[in-house]
């Protein structure tokens, strides 16, 4: 692909909007903040949106960054991002949600899970609280097994397997998700204490073990129906999710 030479105006726009976060031998490029007005139950709420990309090539030269991006075919795989609300850097006691992408629940509104409800509800909770962030983690589909494997797991679930059993029958553990990148981005955006919106003890443990000042947890249950009741019970019974 032909390289695009950036003009001086583009450099001026990007120079304070791309942040480099070093993580071992790799680097995370964080782009933002970007104004993102969101429709929440008919009310427009303005968030600040960031997206990030992990790379093994470190450079502060924007031209080189753009040159790299044009050869990566980023449209073929998704990148993670975060919605920030309020004075996230300095505001007191921010609410944090680490939300795993769910193609079926978040996009199609599937009631086989509670993911779509949790995404919208956590965005409402953050905006009503006044300070917080919702991380949207793109490599977490199906608790880390990917969309195609999730589709196969769904077929097993339609034949009597629960969510944990289906993943295990396909050769996976119950939960393959990793929060390292999101944690590095969180550290770059905020050093003050946070309260985590979650029912999952593994998320809470990941943040605490990374040294983040987590001062509390807020549960997030809802949208329970005949379609996801077994799914939710399995979360509690086998994945040790907390009430």
Q: What would you say about this model in short?
A:
The protein is an alpha/beta fold and 243 residues long. It has helices at residues 8-14, 62-69, 103-107, 115-129, 141-144, 147-157, 163-169, 180-189, 201-209, 229-237, and strands spanning 18-23, 26-40, 43-55, 81-85, 94-100, 132-137, 194-197, 214-218.
List the helices and strands and how they pair.
Layout: H1 8-14, E1 18-23, E2 26-40, E3 43-55, H2 62-69, E4 81-85, E5 94-100, H3 103-107, H4 115-129, E6 132-137, H5 141-144, H6 147-157, H7 163-169, H8 180-189, E7 194-197, H9 201-209, E8 214-218, H10 229-237
Parallel strand pairs: 5-6, 5-7, 7-8
Antiparallel strand pairs: 1-2, 2-3, 3-4, 4-6
Helix pairs in contact: 6-7
Written account of the structure:
It is a single chain. This protein is of the alpha/beta class. It has a single domain (8-237), classed as 3-Layer(aba) Sandwich (Rossmann fold). Helices cover 35% and strands 25% of the residues. It has helices spanning 8-14, 62-69, 103-107, 115-129, 141-144, 147-157, 163-169, 180-189, 201-209, 229-237, and strands at 18-23, 26-40, 43-55, 81-85, 94-100, 132-137, 194-197, 214-218. An eight-stranded mixed beta sheet has the order 1-2-3-4-6-5-7-8, with helices on both faces. It is globular, with a radius of gyration of 19 Å. The protein starts with 7 loop residues before the first helix and ends in a 6-residue tail after the last helix. The model has no long low-confidence stretch (mean pLDDT 87).
């Amino acid at each position: 692909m032909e390289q695009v030479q950036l003009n001086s105006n583009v450099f001026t726009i990007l120079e304070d909007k791309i942040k480099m976060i070093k993580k071992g031998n790799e680097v995370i490029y964080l782009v933002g903040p970007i104004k993102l007005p969101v429709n929440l139950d008919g009310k427009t709420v303005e968030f600040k949106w960031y997206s990030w990309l992990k790379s093994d090539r470190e450079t502060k030269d924007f031209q080189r960054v753009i040159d790299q991006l044009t050869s990566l075919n980023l449209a073929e795989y998704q990148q993670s991002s975060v919605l920030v609300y309020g004075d996230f850097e300095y505001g007191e006691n921010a609410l944090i949600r680490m939300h795993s992408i769910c193609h079926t629940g978040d996009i199609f509104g599937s009631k086989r899970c509670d993911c779509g409800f949790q995404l919208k509800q956590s965005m409402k909770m953050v905006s009503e609280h006044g300070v917080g962030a919702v991380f949207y983690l793109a490599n977490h589909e199906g608790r880390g097994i990917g969309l195609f494997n999730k589709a196969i797991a769904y077929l097993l679930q339609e034949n009597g397997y629960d969510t944990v059993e289906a993943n295990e029958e396909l050769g996976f553990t119950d939960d393959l998700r990793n929060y390292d990148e999101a944690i590095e981005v969180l550290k770059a955006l905020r050093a003050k204490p946070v309260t985590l919106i979650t029912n999952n003890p593994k998320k809470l443990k990941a943040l605490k073990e990374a040294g983040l000042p987590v001062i509390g947890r807020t549960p997030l249950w809802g949208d329970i129906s005949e379609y996801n009741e077994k799914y939710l019970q399995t979360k509690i019974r086998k994945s040790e999710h907390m009430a």
